[in-house]
Design brief:
Length: 428
């Protein structure tokens, strides 16, 4: 019998994170401090160890015991599930393995780095952490991590989501976090925007600016949710587990696919595999990442230096971007709305090592419904944007006549996003 579920035991959890910096095909372009103030800001607000790791050239970094213990608590190691019924539906020309990051307590991959950032904040003696959140996945993971490390969390939540999508806010509040609609009256920047428009919808870029400012002014630590090297490194626990799991069953993926908001879940799964190939000098596997056609930073963005936040408090990063002042249309895959792509992933895309696709919400959601009926599991709206890639691979496999193995970053479940699906799929 072919196994449906590939598990690691608790003893088999990886004890190091992987850092791709030393294995990149060329040096990563460094952040630029154009305002003359942004590095100073970072030094103040980031946990000191996080800032150190951001520039580390160490390939493997030991995971602190305190973080490992909490990885186990929140559901790690996560299983890999073979999507057998989907394979059959698609004509048995591919094998599909899903790395189920949706199996953690907050239902997505985001807890993997939240625990590390918050732990390092406590090591600096911080009394509270701040962060931003769009639809609330990142905020709820920071809220959970803060609860498990006994520290206060202030979460700046994009104003429209705060009111329109209260369920993840309630989850954050269950964990004891204080959630503020952003723009808020807690920072000068927020007050300025509210004075111009009391119903300002907010954006992720604005919420980042507020979270940074609030931490700076009140002596807290700021927790970064994606994009940066350290955040991706912390999340590679998923890819390192997946490597062990694939080795256990003697399968080597031909394709590694996933979706890109800021790029962290995809990079976290792909980098441990890609790192081996980069070191050997030959990249055989195909790496394909997809995003939202409504926020097409990868396929229509420009590879250039841009600000990661709207108020330009943070250093400029070289990345694919559609502009830090881009106001995204109200798409429901909140986690894909960010304007830029992680610098390491951008470099790999620019070199042609990672390919990019964008799919519409409509197409992705149709796939989500189909997937739910075939596999019995409701994917997050973000995750559903990876499913059309499978269709492309199936076409290729049919042409070549070779059975292809696909590994998917299954970044989250959609049980708190049913309202979003309903708005598109079940219009009255
Ligand atoms: C946040 C999120 C994403 C996208 O963010 P990345 O930084 O690209 O990982 C994808 N899927 C889910 C379920 C998310 O919550």
């Amino acid at each position: 019998m072919n196994k449906i579920r590939i598990d690691l035991s608790q003893d088999e959890i990886p004890t190091v994170w992987y850092n791709i910096l030393p294995d990149l095909p060329e040096e990563l372009p460094q952040p630029i401090d154009e305002t003359g103030k942004s590095f100073e800001t970072l030094k103040k607000v980031l946990p000191s160890k996080v800032l150190e790791l951001e520039f580390s050239r160490e390939r493997y970094v030991k995971i602190p015991d305190e973080v490992l213990e909490r990885y186990l608590q929140v559901g790690r190691p996560t299983p890999i599930i073979r999507a057998k019924r989907l394979e059959e539906y698609l004509g048995n020309v591919v094998k599909i393995y899903l790395k189920m990051e949706s199996y953690t307590y907050t239902g997505s991959h985001k807890i993997n780095s939240a625990l590390a950032h918050v732990y390092y904040a406590t090591q600096d003696g911080a009394n509270f952490v701040t962060t931003e959140t769009g639809a609330g996945q990142w905020g709820s993971s920071v809220a959970l991590a803060s609860a498990l490390f006994n520290i206060k969390a202030h979460v700046f939540m994009v104003r429209t989501s705060y009111f329109a999508k209260p369920y993840r806010r309630y989850l954050m509040q269950m964990y004891g976090a204080e959630v503020h609609p952003s723009p808020s009256d807690l920072t000068d920047f927020g007050r300025e925007l509210l004075a111009k428009d009391p119903n300002h919808p907010g954006s992720l870029g604005i919420a980042i600016s507020e979270a940074v400012k609030y931490a700076e002014e009140h002596g807290g630590k700021y927790v970064v949710g994606s994009v940066v090297n350290s955040d991706i490194m912390f999340k590679t626990i998923a890819g390192l587990e997946a490597k062990k799991q694939m080795e256990m069953i003697g399968e080597d993926p031909d394709y590694i696919i996933g979706v890109v908001g800021g790029g962290s879940n995809y990079a976290a799964l792909a980098y441990p595999f890609l790192g081996d190939e980069l070191r050997s000098g030959k990249v055989r596997r195909k790496y394909i990442a997809s995003g939202s056609l409504e926020v097409p930073k990868m396929t229509k963005g420009v590879y250039k230096y841009d600000y990661p936040d709207t108020a330009k408090l943070l250093p400029k990063l070289k990345m694919y971007s559609i502009g830090s002042d881009f106001v995204p249309p109200p798409v429901y895959a909140g986690g894909l709305r960010y304007h830029g792509v992680a610098p390491t992933l951008s470099l790999l895309m620019n070199k042609g090592i990672v390919e990019a696709r964008d799919y519409s919400q409509e197409e992705s959601f149709k796939w989500a419904k189909l997937f739910s009926q075939i596999e019995g599991y409701v994917p997050a709206p973000e995750t559903s944007h990876a499913l059309p890639i499978i269709e492309e691979i199936v076409k290729e496999a049919k042409k070549s006549g070779e059975k292809k193995i696909i590994l998917v970053s299954f970044s989250g479940h959609g049980l708190l996003d049913l309202g979003n699906y309903a708005s598109v799929l079940f219009k009255e």
